[in-house]
Amino acid sequence: MIIDVHGHLLRDPDDLEWIVGSKLIDNVWLLAMPEMPAPYRPDANSVTFGTDPEVLEAAKSFPDFFRPFGFLDFRNPPEAIRDQREAGMVGLKTIFAEKPYDDPSYMAYYEQAEALRMPILFHLGGLGPIRARDLGPGLSTRAVNMRPSHLGTIAGNFPELVCVGAHMGQSWHGEVLECIRCYPNVYFDTSGGDTVLVMRWLLDHLGEPRVTDQIVTGIDSVYGRRQYHEDILEKVQFWESFFKYAGHWFEWTNQAEKFLHGNAAAIHIPS
Fold first, then answer.
1. Which of 135, 209, 197 is nearest to 172 (CA)?
2. Where are the beta strands (DSSP E) in the chain?
3. pLDDT band at residue 36, thresholds of 50, 70 and 90?
4. Three-class secondary structure of residue 91 per DSSP
5. Sign of the CA dihedral with 125 first, then 192, 262, and 227 last
6. Environment class of residue 152 by beta-carbon count within 10 Å: exposed (0-12), middle (13-18) or buried (19+)?
7. Could you give the domains of the chain?
8. What is the Cα–Cα distance from 221 to 54, expressed in whole angstroms?
9. What is the pTM of this model?
């Protein structure tokens, strides 16, 4: 079984019992999103992601399966994070940053999250088909605002805050390795982006010190429709096969359980 640290929820979801009953996923970090421009995916013009209240509702229905992560919205005051925690959120997800993630004006948000022991999953890199003109005020599609190196600044200032970078840093794989080497509270997930580039990076670097302790599995799909659930399970089986069998002559294949489950399970998440 895996822990999927990068899952989204469809608006008005159904068929959740089916994916929960698959027994291939232990639990999911279910990430709330702001209002998203449509269409987001070319295969589904109606895809709209669940916001904070909807993610909390799904987690209440399946408390052992979904871990609710609220949207870290830098347009709100930092104190809003405490409200999210009191509402039941156990972590945060952020994307569309108007400024670089390590901008001094954002530090108060990370201070709040560290005090509440809420991990933050950061989108990293580009945003595909999304256009800035389709977003609300105070949001941005600038990839340079969402680089892996920013997590190093944050992790250094807040050593008790767990930072998870999505998509293996996308274009900035060198910065990923530097963060792992220097900051034990920074992790990176395998989700989204170009899977071939992620695989190549893993094959090149999983044997290096510390890397095996700071990679977690993320699927980056949407929960709430059978067609997406089937896609999720295919990706789960792919990553299980990759970590266990691909390049079986590497020593790190003996540590597949850590990438699929153990590293994420060791991250403290509030109850």
1. 197
2. 2-9, 25-31, 66-71, 91-94, 120-122, 163-165, 186-189, 215-216, 221-223
3. low
4. strand
5. positive
6. buried
7. 2-265 (3.20.20.140)
8. 16
9. 0.94
